[in-house]
Amino acid sequence: MEKRGKQIYAVAALLMSFISSIYSLSVTVNDVECVYEYVLYEGDTVSGNFVVVDHDIFWGSDHPGIDFTATSPGGNTVHTIKGTSGDKFEFKAPRSGMYKFCFHNPYSTPETVSFYIHVGHIPNEHDLAKDEHLDPINVKIAELREALESVTAEQRYLKARDARHRHTNESTRRRVIAYTVGEYLLLAAASTLQVAEFDKIIDEFRQLLHKCELVIKRETGAANRDANKKQERVNIT
């Protein structure tokens, strides 16, 4: 009974530690934005991922991408990623303390970055030797917790990428609709101008025909008058 109680306690501890370690955030990067995370133990595994949600909407082919830098408490760069729209990272903490994770956006357009980070700690033999209450089963629990955390991190990364693709599809759909509506409006405007120009040409042609008719009538009238005069002269003679 006591053994079963320990197992239940261990599983409960695993679930509580797993749930408490899950978190993510969204960062709006105008120029440089930093996030801080405290690492309790030297040698802990710091892992995570980030995705620029709107990059397919606003970025052109010449956009250099977002830069990511992780800095140790001593001010040393422990991990860096240059010119990307999203990636994963993982490194061993060289020492305990406050770590800084910074994003640099070289363009003035604000970018929304979905950021996820996790600090994993698995007790080793040295920890077991120092703490007699640290049972090997707790080590197995920590290993299982980190395995579950790795799966969760991958799911969050894929979910963020899926959200970015949805934003891209929505943006593309809106642009296609706007382009189609604009195209129809331009076509209607061009057709209206063509009809107006055609009516103007028809009016000018009618005026020209009218002038020609008047000239022909004048010439015909003059010719008839000359013919009548000649006929009168012939009759008199």
How does this structure look, described?
- The protein has a single domain (2-173), classed as Jelly Rolls.
- Helices cover 55% and strands 26% of the residues.
- The protein has helices spanning 2-20, 55-58, 125-130, 136-236; strands spanning 24-29, 32-39, 45-52, 66-71, 77-84, 86-92, 97-104, 111-120.
- A hairpin with a 5-residue loop joins strand 4 (66-71) and strand 5 (77-84).
- Helix 1 runs parallel beside helix 4.
- Mean pLDDT is 76; it is low at 1-22.
- Pfam families: EMP24_GP25L (PF01105).
- Keywords: Membrane, Signal, Transmembrane, Transmembrane helix.
- It is a single-pass membrane protein; Single-pass type I membrane protein.
- Residues 32-119 form the GOLD domain.
Q: What's this, in brief?
A:
This protein is 55% helix and 26% strand. The chain has 237 residues and is α+β, with helices and mostly antiparallel strands. It has one domain: GOLD domain (Jelly Rolls).
List keywords for this structure.
Jelly Rolls, 237 residues, 4-stranded antiparallel β-sheet, alpha+beta, 26% strand
User: What is the N-to-C succession of helices and strands?
Assistant: HEEEHEEEEEHH
Largest sheet: 4 strands, antiparallel
Helical proportion?
Answer: 40-55%
The coarse overall form would be rod-shaped
Per CATH, the architecture is Sandwich
The tally of structural domains comes to 1
Low confidence ranges: 1-22
CATH superfamily placement = GOLD domain
Keywords: Membrane, Signal, Transmembrane, Transmembrane helix
Organism: Dovyalis caffra
Main location: membrane
Signal peptide: 1-24
